[in-house]
Design goal:
Elements lengths: L1 H52 L28
């Protein structure tokens, strides 16, 4: 009986270590993804600020003589969630 219990303890310890390793890997991946999202959010903010600072002019006709027709709608980068 004692041998079975010792074997089961050993098996559970092995599972525990494997689970801890998986959790550490997932936490590292989560941190990496969070950093990526932070960089994307920063890029969106910069682009929106550039769009806000730029004068609003319509598209130019292909021959460069004036506004193209019909005017294309203005597109903005969406705000981050």
């Amino acid at each position: 009986m004692r041998e079975r219990l010792e074997k089961r303890v050993s098996e559970l310890e092995t599972e525990l270590h494997a689970g801890q390793q998986m959790l550490a890997e997932l936490e590292a991946k989560r941190a990496d993804i969070q950093q990526t999202l932070l960089r994307i959010t920063g890029a969106i903010q910069v682009l929106n600020e550039l769009l806000a600072a730029e004068p609003r002019t319509g598209p130019v006709a292909a021959d460069g003589t004036g506004p193209a027709s019909p005017a294309a709608p203005e597109r903005r980068v969406p705000e981050p969630l």
